[in-house]
């Protein structure tokens, strides 16, 4: 369970990689054991720091995907990046990195909020939303969730098996995958960008006063959040997290 967490924890901790697995051909799940971890709320992130032998260091922020005491990060490999290729291709179980957090207090979902929830993810923006889905299940919450997940192809769906299982076994979770480049064979819909029609059909309507969480690349987030506001949603209920 996620314990009460103070936003903006600034203490660097040495975290050990406890497990790693492929999420897609270009993304990895990294699960860390973090000494004295204070717990986190779903939607928060951590700062991660790598330091070379010559003293050069680089930092990146990653959203937390896990519920519980371990910290899981979903890392999308950026081929010319400084950090993600190392995390995806070099870091091995038992390796250590520096990590601080949890950070953030706005883009979080709390199980005490009983309003229905719409989650919208673009690509690796699914990471913090998975924490919300998992905490909801761990808390035994019956708050209804709808997830709209935009990806290029079926090979780009992170947490695919888990999402499929949760959508099948949990009547309170509805999952809609939108394919922008190539839809799976037999798909009833052609590939295309996430737009007004899909959101109007698969998100909770404005009159339900849902909580809305949108995470993804900057352009995606701006477009999607504008659609929600145009559909009558209270802008204060549309929370966004962006990258890139």
UniProtKB/TrEMBL annotation:
Annotated Pfam families: FAD_binding_6 (PF00970), NAD_binding_1 (PF00175)
GO molecular function annotation: 2 iron, 2 sulfur cluster binding; oxidoreductase activity
Protein name as it appears in the record: Oxidoreductase
Residue intervals of the FAD-binding FR-type domain: 10-109
Keywords: 2Fe-2S, Iron, Iron-sulfur, Metal-binding
InterPro entries in the cross-refs: Cbr1-like_FAD-bd_dom, FAD-bd_FR_type, Flavoprot_Pyr_Nucl_cyt_Rdtase, FNR_nucleotide-bd, MRET, OxRdtase_FAD/NAD-bd, Riboflavin_synthase-like_b-brl
Cofactor: FAD
Keyword Iron attributed: yes
